[in-house]
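[Automated response] Your request has been received and processed.

Submitted sequence:
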Amino acid sequence: MTMKLVKWKNGKNKPAVSTDIKPEEWDEMSKDETIKFLPLKSEWEHARFTKDGILNILYKTNRKTKAKHDFYNQRLINVLVRDNGEAYKSVFRDIEGERTELDAISKGEVYELKTYIPTQKTIDWYIHKMEKFDIEHINLVSPRVKAEHLENLDIPNNISVYRLNIFKEPIFKWFREMEIDTRINYHYRHLRVMDSNLRFAFQERLMSPSKKHTTETKLRKHFIKIAANCLVWKAYYSLNQFYDPVYERTGRGRGKNMFIPAFDIDTDKHHGHHYKGHQYCEDCVKSAKSKLKSALKKLDNYSEIYFSGAKGFHVYLDWDEVDEKKMVELNQLLSPEADQFTFMREEGVRFDEHRIVKFPHSICGDTLCAVEPYSGDIVEVETTDNLVLLK
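Generated structure:
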């Protein structure tokens, strides 16, 4: 995953210059003895130093870059589970007080993912990493690398390079045939779809029913069009209704204060995710089920529970809308098990009126698990992605 290096030039009228830097490039740069390292001033900084009298700040991988990496890493896990039956993700290895994180392990083989095209610096960096952390062999995987990119690289026998081919057919088919839940009024709700690069595709018009088409048929056509043009990651709708939902793409929608009472119950974060015969981590689901059980004890009743498509659950208390006051009360009732979406204002506690949630019956584009009612089983769509050995 790349980081961002910001160089602050001397002089008030000279703007800072920022560049993306890869881990292997920073590993080489940090060996420069002319660099003077300074104390960090923020949790977002990876390093702060001066070189030739100019201040440089290296910022950690941002959220967007990390999420993009996680998307392809999960698609890699899906392939390994399908082909090998089992895989581990985000495994730490400690050697002599130093730690590194391995993207995936399956059948004892180490897999490292790069969302960019590997260069000779990348290869040299992994040679150093293998020696440092006692790794015999690494499978280097990239969704962008091609055979011609490797022609002039010196790659040792203990590094294999694979291309990860990503196919969107399962997602396109799913959204083409997806059930549209008629218990939710999508007419005045804001709709959006996220692709694997974290770019949102927003609805372009109000889903008003007509003589020829209902809101549901218009919504289905909307999904089919988007799924045909991009690799869908997640599909969302707003819990709140809006007078002008199209304007919500810039956060300027005027809320109607009519919320579907739905809440997220997510797993506690952990590393070393284990995938055995499934495209979801059983430890994550077990953790989320424990929190879900605790949350349900606080409720007199609920309508339906959906698997979130990744590692948690969506609890629908009812299909009839409630106002903001009720959403605040429910949010506080389900604390700390449910994700909290309240905040303080001068007038008191408010609920996030722009809150979005995954569509019921949609699919999560990285795990390829469906957002379907949960009764003990999780609906999975087997991946059609594959790994191609290039060198």
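Summary generated for your ticket: The chain has three domains: 3-59, 63-165, 169-358. Residues 63-165 form a domain with the Trna Endonuclease; Chain: A, domain 1 fold (CATH 3.40.1350.10).
If you did not submit this request, please reply to this message.
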